[in-house]
Design a protein that fits this description.
Radius of gyration: 14 Å
Helix content: under 10%
Number of helices: 1
Oligomer: single chain
Order of helices and strands: EEEEH
Shape: elongated
Number of strands: 4
Strand order of the largest sheet: 1-2
Strand content: 15-25%
Largest sheet: 2 strands, antiparallel
Length: 65
Protein backbone atom coordinates (compact mmCIF):
# COMPACT_ATOMS: atom_id res chain seq x y z
CA UNK A 1 0.00 0.00 0.00
CA UNK A 2 1.40 3.38 -1.00
CA UNK A 3 1.90 6.01 1.67
CA UNK A 4 -0.25 9.13 1.33
CA UNK A 5 1.21 12.64 1.58
CA UNK A 6 -0.03 14.59 4.61
CA UNK A 7 0.20 18.07 6.12
CA UNK A 8 3.09 18.01 8.56
CA UNK A 9 4.58 20.70 10.82
CA UNK A 10 3.78 24.19 9.52
CA UNK A 11 1.20 22.77 7.09
CA UNK A 12 4.04 21.62 4.82
CA UNK A 13 3.15 18.64 2.62
CA UNK A 14 5.27 15.64 3.63
CA UNK A 15 5.89 12.32 1.87
CA UNK A 16 7.22 10.79 5.13
CA UNK A 17 5.52 7.56 6.26
CA UNK A 18 2.26 8.53 8.03
CA UNK A 19 -0.71 6.91 9.74
CA UNK A 20 -4.09 7.93 11.14
CA UNK A 21 -4.21 9.35 14.67
CA UNK A 22 -7.41 7.88 16.11
CA UNK A 23 -9.42 8.96 19.12
CA UNK A 24 -10.14 6.56 21.98
CA UNK A 25 -13.11 5.08 20.07
CA UNK A 26 -11.05 4.42 16.94
CA UNK A 27 -12.40 7.40 14.98
CA UNK A 28 -9.72 8.89 12.66
CA UNK A 29 -8.74 12.45 13.59
CA UNK A 30 -5.84 13.32 11.27
CA UNK A 31 -2.80 11.85 9.53
CA UNK A 32 0.49 12.09 11.43
CA UNK A 33 4.12 11.05 11.10
CA UNK A 34 6.89 10.73 13.65
CA UNK A 35 7.78 14.42 13.25
CA UNK A 36 4.30 15.92 13.72
CA UNK A 37 2.41 13.42 15.91
CA UNK A 38 3.04 15.19 19.26
CA UNK A 39 2.21 18.63 17.82
CA UNK A 40 -1.07 17.45 16.29
CA UNK A 41 -2.11 15.54 19.45
CA UNK A 42 -1.96 18.86 21.36
CA UNK A 43 -4.87 20.16 19.26
CA UNK A 44 -7.24 17.61 20.82
CA UNK A 45 -8.61 17.32 24.33
CA UNK A 46 -6.56 14.66 26.16
CA UNK A 47 -9.65 12.76 27.30
CA UNK A 48 -10.67 11.91 23.72
CA UNK A 49 -7.31 10.29 22.92
CA UNK A 50 -8.08 7.47 25.37
CA UNK A 51 -11.27 5.37 25.56
CA UNK A 52 -14.08 7.66 26.70
CA UNK A 53 -17.78 7.66 27.47
CA UNK A 54 -20.62 10.17 27.27
CA UNK A 55 -19.70 11.29 30.82
CA UNK A 56 -16.26 12.43 29.63
CA UNK A 57 -17.40 14.79 26.87
CA UNK A 58 -19.93 17.61 26.57
CA UNK A 59 -21.45 16.43 23.31
CA UNK A 60 -23.59 13.56 22.12
CA UNK A 61 -21.72 10.43 21.02
CA UNK A 62 -23.32 8.64 18.07
CA UNK A 63 -23.18 4.88 18.56
CA UNK A 64 -23.38 4.14 14.83
CA UNK A 65 -20.51 6.34 13.60
Amino acid sequence: MKNRPHKCIGDQISEEYSWWLNDGQGIPLCRVCGRCEAEKEKKYRPEILRPYSQGDVDERIDADY
